[in-house]
Design goal:
With 532 residues, this protein is α/β, with parallel strands linked by helices. Helix content is 55%, strand content 8%. The chain starts with a helix and ends with a helix. About 7% of the residues have low confidence.
Length: 532
């Protein structure tokens, strides 16, 4: 111990004294500069022998000293200004931070809105005969896009989180131009929003309706909003069907604006026959991957927790079961970690960060909305598509109405899913209603040879609580889900010979559930009687 103390005194002691000598020397300098009486005495000892040149040199020396002192004072002044100029209160700092985050998100939405509008225009031109090779070229917006990334919180697993620590990659050097551009954005610019974690489903639906009316001039009945939101708690695929101009595309588009996560619009083309129409393909000639808006939307959704809608516009202008079959199968897998799309057979060093073993994960914050026009120019949608989706009919527009202005809301997918789970615990379908549904099932088997499948039974048990939490009633939810999921199967029957059975069925609905309680079911049955 004694030897160590001697060593410490000799080595670190000298080091510390040398460090202190810097400050001692600085204060000695100031003391000497400001000690004018002592300096005058020194000057008096030598000035008797000064000549003209000596006095000139003395003046020059003092001018240099004054300049040196002036530079030191000016440097200290600039340093103090730099230190104290940006000092603001904690409250002002928080307000400025929120403004910066809001502006950054606005910039992101504006850039991607331009990109999506451009993609829609290209798709329209392609339908008119634009050569396919032009569609593989990146847009000017994409080529000039800033390198981007994640400065705020992200929500990926540790492997993906670590992959963002590296430098940005030039998109032109990657075979995935658009996906690499997404990586770059989240590496440098993205800031996660502050989410509203207190809103309820009922408040969410009411505010959504007021927002669409006051900001977008889109008007929907409150029940229609409830049908749509409750469908999100039941299935990953929602089908909006009806005549043109009733707001089928506008509803999910407005939802994206409301939650501040712009909806991705994918215009389906009549020529679509296989999976590559959705996910793209590797072009052996250009050595680039031909990326699609659909693939980009799913890939980017892995970076944030906002709910995101992907619209398949005019979904049945091509056969849905051809190009969407793989997605239907993937979404049926019980374990979410199995929700992956294979897009490449091998991984390259400069591939996008979130491609793992050639696959892209489908996150749980994505919902797919297909719009359908039922006319002679479209294909009939297969039962396996309807069975996995929640269909909603939009046959008419709601009348415009006046309401208080409502703003958008930042809600995380985790909060939204939590609200759906809470609803299923708080508002389970009643035993009385389950008994009635069991009796209805037996009636349908006996008279129409139709039955509830296990999937439909699960959807009913999930949909009813979510609809109640949105502000509706149990019987409204049952009426809607039975009409859309069960009675729709009547279209496969020879209804021209069953009009009497349909009339008796309406009477049976009144007896089982109450007179005129099942309005949607009865209206649908009357429609079938009239048109068959």
């Amino acid at each position: 111990m004694e030897n160590f103390l001697k060593y410490f005194y000799q080595d670190f002691g000298r080091l510390l004294r040398s460090f202190l000598d810097v400050f001692v020397a600085f204060f000695d300098f100031l003391n000497y500069v400001l000690n004018f009486p002592m300096r005058v005495e020194i000057l008096e000892q030598y000035n008797s022998g000064f000549g003209t040149l000596d006095w000139v040199l003395l003046v020059i020396a003092y001018l240099f000293l004054i300049l040196l002192i002036g530079l030191m004072i000016w440097g200290l002044y600039k340093l103090c200004r730099r230190i104290f100029r940006f000092k603001v209160s904690a409250k002002e700092f928080d307000a400025l931070s929120k403004q910066v985050k809001s502006l950054q998100r606005d910039l992101l939405r504006a850039n991607y809105e331009k990109d999506r509008l451009l993609n829609m225009r290209i798709a329209e031109l392609n339908g008119q005969g634009l050569p396919d090779d032009l569609l593989d070229e990146p847009s000017e917006d994409e080529e000039n896009q800033q390198t981007e990334g994640d400065t705020g919180e992200n929500y990926m697993d540790n492997a993906n989180r670590n992959s963002l620590q590296g430098p940005c990659i030039d998109p032109a050097e990657s075979r995935f131009f658009r996906l690499t551009s997404v990586d770059n954005y989240y590496k440098s610019l993205y800031v996660a929003p502050t989410y509203n974690e207190t809103i309820t489903l009922e408040q969410f639906c009411e505010q959504f309706r007021r927002y669409t009316a006051s900001h977008l001039r889109l008007y929907y009945e409150l029940d229609m909003i409830r049908y749509f939101v409750a469908a999100m708690g039941t299935a990953r695929i929602i089908i909006l069907q009806g005549i043109s101009g009733t707001g089928k595309t506008s509803l999910p588009y407005a939802f994206g604006k409301f939650v501040q996560s712009d909806t991705s619009v994918v215009p389906v083309q009549p020529s679509w026959r296989e999976r590559t129409e959705l996910y793209g393909y590797y072009n052996e000639f250009t050595k680039k991957y031909s990326e699609t808006t659909f693939l980009e939307a799913i890939y980017e959704a892995n970076y944030y927790r906002d709910p995101h809608m992907v619209i398949l516009d005019e979904m049945n202008i091509a056969r849905v079961e051809y190009y969407f079959a793989e997605m239907l199968s993937i979404l049926e897998m019980p374990r979410q970690e199995e929700w992956k799309i294979d897009i490449a057979t091998a991984t390259w060093d400069n591939d996008p960060c979130l491609i793992e073993n050639g696959a892209v994960r489908i996150p749980n914050n994505v919902w797919f909305v297909g719009t359908i026009n039922n006319d002679d120019s479209t294909f009939a949608v297969a039962d396996k598509v309807y069975d996995r989706a929640i269909p909603i009919d939009l046959d008419s527009r709601a009348e415009p109405f006046e309401c208080e202005e409502a703003g958008p809301v930042f809600i995380s997918t985790d909060r939204l899913i939590s609200l759906f789970d809470q609803a299923k615990q708080a508002y389970p379908i009643s035993q009385e209603m389950l008994d009635k549904l069991e009796e209805l099932n037996a009636y349908l088997i006996k008279n129409f040879r139709l039955a509830f499948g296990n999937r439909i039974n699960k959807q009913i048990r999930d949909y009813v609580p979510c609809f109640i939490a949105c502000g509706g009633t149990e019987v409204q939810a049952v009426d809607f889900i039975i009409a859309k999921k069960v009675l729709r199967k009547f279209e496969s029957l020879s209804l021209g010979f069953m009009k009497d059975e349909l009339t008796r069925f309406n009477t049976y609905l009144d007896r089982l559930f109450g007179k005129n309680t099942m309005k949607i079911c009865k209206e649908y049955v009357d429609y079938l009687k009239k048109n068959n």
